[in-house]
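In practice, a research group might receive sequence data for several interacting partners and want a quick structural hypothesis before committing to experiments. The following worked case mirrors that situation: the sequences arrive first, and a predicted assembly follows.
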Amino acid sequence: MITLNDILLLSPEIVLTIGAFVVIIVDLFYSKKSFSAVITSLFLAISAVLSVALTANLISYNDPSGLSIINVLSIDKYSLFLKSLILLSGLSISLCGINLLSKELKSKGEFWALFLISITGMTLLTSTTEMITAWVALELTSLPVIGMLALNQRKYSLEVALKYLILSATSSAIILMGIAYIYGVSGSTFFSEISMLETALSGKFFFKDPSSILILFGLILVVSGASFKIASFPFFSWVPDVYQGAPTIVTIYLSVVSKIAGLSIIIRILFDSINSSMINEWAIYISIMAAVSMTVGNVMALRQSNIKRLFAYSTIAHAGYILVGLASSEPDSLNSSNFAGIQSSVFYIVAYAITNLTAFLSVLSISKEINSFSIEKYKGVGIKLRFQSIILSIALISLLGIPATIGFMGKAFIFSSAISNNLMWLALIGILNSVISAYYYIRIIKLMFIDTPEDQGPETYSGDLNTRIITSFGAILILMFGLAPAMLLGIVEGVVNILQ
Amino acid sequence: MPGGILSFLIFFPIISGIIIGIFSRNKYLNVNVKKTSLLITGIQMILSILVFFSYDKTLGGFQFIDYFDSWIPFEAFTARYIVGIDGLSAPLILLTGILGFCAVIASMNIQFRQKEYFMWLLVLQGVVTGVFASLDLLLLFVFWEAELIPMYFLISIWGSGRAHYSAMKFLIFTLTSGALLLIGIVSLYFATGTFTMFDITELGLNGIVNSNFSIAIPAIFIFFIFFIGFAIKLPLFPVHSWLPDAHTDAPTAVSIMLAGVLLKMGGYGLLRINVDIFNYIDPSILTDLAPYFAIIGAFSVIYGALLTIQQTDLKRLIAFSSVSHMGYVVLGFSSYGAFASVGSTEGLGGTALQLFTHGTITGLAFLLVGLTYERTHTRYIPHLGGLVNKMPLITTFFVIAGFASLGLPGLSGFVAELMIFVGTFKMGSIWAISTIVAVFGVVLAAAYTLWMIQRAYFGERVQEDSPVNFDQLDDLNRLELLSVLILTATIVIVGIYPAIITDMFNVGVGEIFTR
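A structural hypothesis for the assembly, expressed as C-alpha cells:
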C-alpha cells in the first residue's frame, strides 16, 4: 500500500518523470529555440528543492532514519544527499544549456526529455537496496544517453552513440552475470539478506570455502560492470572518444552526474550488501582499479591537444582517486584513529562534482566563444575572456590539488585514509600521479594567461551570463570549502554513518 | 607586541595583494601600485624587525601564538590554525621581512602587467611568512604548496630566456617535494594522532613531540621522505637541477625571494622536522645516518663550486654558488650527534645562521646583478668589463657581497661557515674528513667570486662587439641605494656582532634537545 508519505519521499523522481513528459508535449506545440531547456531547468529546480528539503529534514516525514518502499528502495540520508548533489549538478548543466547547447542539435525537446529520464534513473540508483532494481536503474540511466548522443547532427555522432551502446550493453551483461553469481550463492538479491549470509560465512577461511569465492567473483563482476558508469579501469576505453564526439553538455553530464550515480551504487554494494567481513579480499581489487585508472588517466592526458579529450582522461584519473578512498575503508585500522576511507571518498565526490562542473562549464562557455576545442586556441583567452578564465584557473588548480581549494582537501583526506590503512604504495602512486597532472592542468592556465594570442580575433568576448553566475558560485564553493572544510565534512560524516 | 601580530604578517600582504589584483582596472590605484606595495612591504619589514627584537630570549619557547581551533575539526583528522615563533623561526621571519621590501624595490622598473606582478609578489611574501610561522604541520604544508602558484606566474610571465620551461620545471620539482612532504606529514599524524608539532602549554595542546609514536611504517622511511622533500627545496645534489634554470630566468625580485627566502624553507624544514621532531621520535636514525649526510653535504659544496666556476652568465653563476652554499647546510645538519657526544650545538647553530646569512648575501648579490642587468642588458660575463668606472657604487657593494659570500672575516658569511666547520670537525672521523674537503669549497668560492668580479666589473673596458652601451651606464638611484644599504648593513652587523642572531638561534637549537 503506497501512502502519502511514500509519495512525498519519491517526489523528486515523480517531478522529474512528469517533467520529461511535459517537455515532450510542450515541444510539439511550441518549439522556440531554448524553451524546452527552460522547462527542464524548472522541473529540475523543483526536484532539487524537494530533495534538498528532504535531506535537511525541512519536510518532515515519518521515518527520518530511512524508509524502505516495497523493500527495494531506501530513502535515507545517504541517498538523499547524493540525490541532491545529482539534481543540483543536473540543474546547473541545464541552466547553462539554455544558451550553450550546440546549434547542430536536431530536436531539443527530445534531448531534454531524455536528459530528465536519465537523471530520474540516477536518482533512483542512489536509493536502490536490491540488485535487480539497481540494474534496471542503471539501464534507465544509460539508454537515454544513447539517444542524447545520437541526436547530434555531426557526422560521427552515430559512431559515438554506437560505441556507447555496445560498451554499455557489455557492462550491463557483466553486471547481470555478477548478480547471478551472488544470487546463486545467497539465494537473494536483497542487499540486507546478502549481507546476513556474508556474516555467516565470515568465520570461515577464504580459500577453503567455495561459496565465498563465488560471492567475491560475483562482486568483482558487478563492480567492474559499474566501472563503466564511473569511467574507471577496466571499462574506460569508451571515455575519450565519446567525450570528444558528444555534444559538450552530454560530456559534462557523463563526467559529473553519471559518475556520482555510479559511485553511489558501487559504495552501496560494497558497504551495504557485501559487508565488511570480506573487505580484505575486495580491497585489493579496488586498489588495483584505482592505481591503473590514476596512472592511465594522467599519463594519457599529458599529450592531448583537444581539451575535451584531456578532460576525459582527467576524469578517469579522478575516478581512480575516489577509488583509493574506497580501497582504504578497512574498519579497524592499526591505530584507533579510524579515518574512514569511505568518508573521504564521499567528500572527494562532492569536491570533484563542484570542481569539474565549474571547470567544464567554463570550458564550454570559452570554447563557444572561440569556436574551438583545441587547447592551442586557448592562447590569450585570459585577456579576452578574463572573468571566465580566472574561474577556470581556480577550478584547474583545485583539480590539481593545490592548497586553499576543495580539491586539496579532498586529496589530503583520500591519501590520509590510504596511509592510515597501510596502503602506502597506493598513496605514493596517487600522489606522484597528482604531480604528473600538474603538467597538463598548468599548461592550460599558462596558455590562457601567459601566452599571447596568435591571431587577432575580437578584443573581448562577452561569455554566457548563466554560465558566469553558476561557475562563479562554484568557484566560491571551491575556495570556501578549501579554506574551511569543516561544514562539508560534518555533513559527509552524518551521511556516511547510515551505511556503517 | 599586540596579539595577532604573526597572523597580520601573514595575511596583510596576501589580502592587500589580492585587493591590488582585483581592482587592477581601477584608475585610482593604477598610478600608485608601486608606492602601495612599497608601503605594504615597508610596514612588513618594520613589524618583522619589531617582532624579532620583542621575542623574549630568556623565556624561550613559542611566543606570539595565534590560535584558531576549528579549522578542520574533524574527529579523525584534526588540524588547527596555530602560528607562533621560537628562536629558530624568528630570524627567518626577520629575513623574509627584509628581503620582501628589497624585492619590491628591485621591481620598480616593471612595466608589463604591473598590478598582477605586485599582487603575486605580495602574496608570495605572506605565504612564505606562513611557512616559517606555522606550528601545525598541515598548515605548514598548505603554505608550502600555496607558494607555488605565485612563483609559477612570476617566473613564467615576467621571466626572461626560457621562462616557461624553467617555471614548469620549478613547479614539477616543488610539487614532488610537496607530495613527499604530504605523505610524511600524514604518516606522522597517524603515528601520533596530531598535526601540532610541539606541546603548547598555554593552550594545553599536546604535540607530535611527546605523543605516543606507533605506526606500521618504519620511522626511518618517514625520515627519508621528509629528507628528500626538503633536499629538493634546498636544493641538494642530485636534485638541484631546477635551481639554476629558475634563478636565471626569473626576474630580479623573484631571484631575491627564491634564493633568499624560498631555499630557506628547505633548510628550515630539515631543522624543524628532521632534527627537531625526529630527535624525539628516534634519535638513532639521525646518529646512524649523519656520516652519510656529511659526505653528501661536502660533495654538494665542492660539486656546486666546480660548476660555478664554469659559468659565464652572472646570474647563473650566483645560482650555482647557492647549490654550493646549501651544501654547508647539510654538512652542518650532519653534526647533529655533537650535542650528545661533545655537548655542543655549534654545527646546528651554524646551519641556522647559514640560512640567514646566505639569504642576505645572495639576496644582495642577485639584487646587484639585477641592477647591473637593467643597465647593461646582458649578463654574459665576456661582454662586460670595466663597469667600475661607470658604476662605482654597484661595484663596491658587489665586492662586499662577494667577500661575504667567500667568507671574509668581519662579514656574516664567515661566522656561519666557521661555526659549521667547528661543529662538524669536533665529531672526528668521517665528519672531520668531510669538513676538510668542504673547506676547499671556500677556496673555490674565492676563485669564482673574485674571478667573476674581476672579469665583469674591473678589467678592460667592454669590447667593441659587446651590446653594452658603455657611455650610457649610470649608478644606483636613491631607492636602490636604500635597499642595497639595508642588506649590506645586515651583513656587516651580523659579521661584526654575530650574537645578535646567534643568541636567538642558540635558544631555538638548544630547545631541540631539552624538549
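Before designing any experiment, note the following. The mean pLDDT of chain A is 83. The first strand of chain A starts at residue 67 and ends at 69.
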